[in-house]
Amino acid sequence: MPGMADHGPRVSAMTPRGLAKTLTRHPRPLGGDTARERGDTALSLTGMVLNNGPGTQQLAIGRKPRWIRAKAPSGERYERLRKTIAEHRLHTVCQEASCPNIGDCWSRGTATIMILGDTCTRSCGFCNVRTGRPLPPDLDEPRRVAESVAIMDLKHVVITCVDRDDLPDGGAAIWAETIRRVHDACPRTSVEALTGDFKGDRDALQVVIEARPEILAHNLETVRRMHPAVRPQAAYDRSLKVLRWIKEAGLVAKTGLMVGIGERDDEVISLMDDVRTIADTDILTIGQYLQPTRNHLPVERWVTPVQFDRYKSDGLDRGFRVVESGPLVRSSYHAEEQASRL
To answer: For the whole model, what pTM was predicted?
Structure first.
């Protein structure tokens, strides 16, 4: 039953000695202010969220359970892809977000390319991408991305971005140009675009839709109750609208969710119901939240593989065409396999 599952081991508090060592290694906190509020909240994690103000705390990263194991980066294909990305001055979410699957994905010749720079205008409590004032968009980036995808000879490419709330269109024009360039340069490569919410600007989203990526994704990331702490500049209902607009445009719609960041299992089920009934979304991914640094929201629980299997069954029962659910699943993990199933 929802809410009655085995939640796995909980994390433990940091000792004073451990805190002292951490402060020595990380004397200045990273990222932006993840404690900004959006009106009345049902949940406050203010005492757990780290920001750049006085009295900032450092949180322990607990020991991972045995089922959280990622392949170490290595191999000829990994090195070849790493060099290609460096030579073309590309940013990948694999690197910027410290993805645990970088070794597995790159050794298989797949990667998620991040456009519009490496600095985000938002300060989500889970994300390891830097927060700040971005540089102006690189207008040559779409060409370089397409050229790199052609060199890598990918069957399916995932392209994502930082949020660019500083731009009038949220970066939609660069998005559309990148998708078209990849389609032109690599006609046999399917494109999956993982975008932000464009602050709810449907016209901006339409610019991306008209470029016709094979899959258009937008991640909810967490349940409704947790949004003020986890995604302080986003909104649960706004993200549902974005997903609905994608589906109404006739594209394959996809969203992703983290667990272990403070949600309950019944809330995960409620999110599935919302995504299906309101947005009619096709693909759902569910993975374990991993605290990237001591300056991010802590892991509240380690969800067991058995519970991930239950999530998958629950999602398929609700009509999702594809559900990827597992401890190391990320939105772009094995995305080429998801695309081939549709």
So the answer is: 0.78
